[in-house]
Amino acid sequence: MRIAIIGAQSFLAKEIIRQAEDNFEILAIKSNSPISYYFPSRSFDRGFDLRCLLDYQVIISCFAAGVQQNKTIQQDFFYEVNAFEPIRLINGLETLGFKGKLFTFGSYFEIGQSIERKSYCESMFVRHSNPIFGNYAKSKRLLTQYVSMVASQLPFDLVHFILPNLYGYGENENRLFPYIKHNLLHHSKMEFTSGEQQRQFVHVSDIARQLLQMVTVRYQGVLNLSSESIKVKDVIVLALNTLSEKYGIKPDFKFSKLTKRDSDLKYLELDDQIARQKFSWKPETKIEMGIAEY
What we know:
It contains 9 helices and 11 strands. With about 290 residues, it is an alpha/beta fold.
């Protein structure tokens, strides 16, 4: 089977390629490759020839403008890259008669400000009216809603995976676990928010494994992949204990009234029963084992 991965320099794409390279023929499209994709110099409606993808049975669209991007990034870029470019890709493939599978991705940050704790199944996720803050979540929300409207009408399978927090060795250095490791090794004092938010964490290897298992199954539309919910404070303590034991360094930290951009998002939880029941989804990496990789 032939798989094309757009945005092959991303954290998730690198893991997909690592797991797939022995069993699949891979076309990895990244900004510095001869068949480059990099908005806005090349877009799916100008400069990028979508016909180069038609010989591939599966296309995985991993490119995105994430929340870890440089703060000077213009808000229009989030909407172009996270919403309008994937929509151009979908429409372009339909026009060209693509018959395979296309995987795209959303985020559980699209849940926004939920006033009560509940797990969002796919239908609830698409239809909720919670306030959503930040250009990243808003742009992802636009794509999710578009996919929910058109997926069943397309001549190819479009699967839009909604993901929680991905983690694993090699992720962005500004994320939680690399931050803890860096400050621990440098004997720096760490300050965290109160950590009362509920979150879900899935190791990147589990997500990549599930994606590759689904290249041969039929599904159209939105699909949640998640894990058990955990309080942020508890996962921080787990990470501090795991890494301090690994490196033999006592951590210096405190929980405080410090606020961050997602502090008001108290409950972010996905219900992944469809994936578990239909596609045998079950994360294999225990979070303490995943943290120990760092």
